Fold this sequence. Notes:
Order of helices and strands: EEHHHHHEEEEHHHH
Number of strands: 6
Structural class: alpha+beta
Largest sheet: 4 strands, antiparallel
Radius of gyration: 21 Å
Number of domains: 1
Helix content: 40-55%
Strand content: 5-15%
Amino acid sequence: MWKTLYQQPGSDMAINTWGVMITLAFAAAAFVVHGRTRRVGIDPDKMVWLYVIAIVGGLAGARLLHFTMATPKEFFADPMVFFRFWQGGFAFYGGVIVAGVAGVIYGMARGVDAWKMSDAVMPAVLLGLALGRVGCFFAGCCHGAAYALPADAVALLPDDFSGGQLWFIPRAPFLLELTHDGVGHNDVVVMATQLYEVVASLLMFGIGSWVWHHRRYDGQVVGVCMIMYALWRPFNESLRGDTVRGTQYLEFLPAEWPVHTTSQVVSIPVLVIGLLILLLRIRSGLRPEKPFEPPHEEVIAGSAPRL
């Protein structure tokens, strides 16, 4: 819809809107994590490397899961496609899994309470996802299945906008889009599933944040967020219609059953693990916590701001 934010005249150099939104997603998530970890007594300085791990591990994990599950033949035939980021594919679950595991290992190595850190991080991940999906909408990827444009659809963008059009209809699926130069299907009216996920992710961020402020035991926020997203994602996947969509991983099911996508399959263990966390942690209670304060001598010395 608006794939390129800025194009250098006479050059191939460009600033892609998706990249800008992903950058904002990481920044917004880090901002939330920074404040919440400080409130539970974690030194914010120890979180700086966590953000680096989240960026590197998140992008690498998302890329790896996409190729190994969605298009394994392409990946194993040419593994170097992993580094050609302009050629399709990031899977959100892969990024969260790799960045999450690496982040917990790093936190434990630095003496950080892994449960308190994870509870602070999980809602922020959903906030980052919401901003990232805005980038997907602009890029034209991760869109929904084709949908006939009804007569009562209301156009939300100017008719002369070159990127495409977005319509509202007063019933499900509510939002439809058409992209002229995106990375998915062009010149076809489809459901705006990216925007559905933006709304759902913001709602889950709000719920997760409420739970964080009212949590009764460490790990509660992690379990709740995992369950919410594992229930939401398969539904949104069922509406998707982008190119790499539909691989029957569950081969023991009857052939006439619907195919299942990478994220639908991964949602199953995510849901189970989320439920187990709640069940196993419910009696653990909250470990003592108080806002982090820098050492007194550091304050007296007038050190630089603790980023």
